[in-house]
Amino acid sequence: MQGWVERFQQSIDFIEENLASALKIEDIAQIAALSPFYYQRIFGALCGMTVGEYIRARRMTLAAQELSSTDGKVIDVALKYGYDSPDSFAKAFQKFHGITPSRAREKGAALRSFVPLHIKISLEGGKMLDYRIVEKAPFTVVGIKRRFNSDTSYQEIPKFWNEWAADMKGLKGMFGLCLDMDGKDFDYWIADHYVPWEDVPEGCEWTVIPGGLWAQFKCKGSLPDSL
Q1: Tens-place pLDDT, residues 199-211
Q2: How far apart are the C-alpha atoms of 93 and 104, rounded to whole Å?
Q3: What was the pLDDT predicted at 142?
Q4: Does the structure show a pLDDT above 80 at 136?
Q5: Domains along the chain?
């Protein structure tokens, strides 16, 4: 647990060190040893906001500090924190701080500050978590897939599951699989074990999952809450 928390904190520290640079979710998630999709899910659960919202809040905090304490031009500060024009920067700035960038230079201007996150997990009263490590041979799954982008997958994949629930296409939905990463794009499958003597449901495809070590956890109750 401690090693995992440290890696996740390192990913947040990486964000903090690169707020004035282009940040990619793939690079951030890699530091925590997670896929972009699961990193965003865990970040949202731990921090109560999306990764993008956190980055914007931190950039707006630093931008306000620079405007109020230096003579830097608004356009230079806007470009530094990822905004292509003064107008888009001014809109984002006013939405966050409630005042325009020019007013931030006034003495006594009221500005908002969002401090960096520090992950601390405290376990109290704990309960048993049943799991086992197993080695699985390659196996075949059959299901439906859709291409997603890691920037929006956190919001879009739950919609994919809702669509499937409305028309299950002969699937039980045993697996949710992230496969075939290509930059920010990847395939997400809703799938079941492939049974050779049964027909592949209409609209479904099949793919082979490589063999390897798996951690198996018991989920008790209805999905997705039991996860």
Answers
A1: 888 888 889 998 8
A2: 10
A3: 92
A4: yes
A5: 2-105 (1.10.10.60), 131-217 (3.20.80.10)
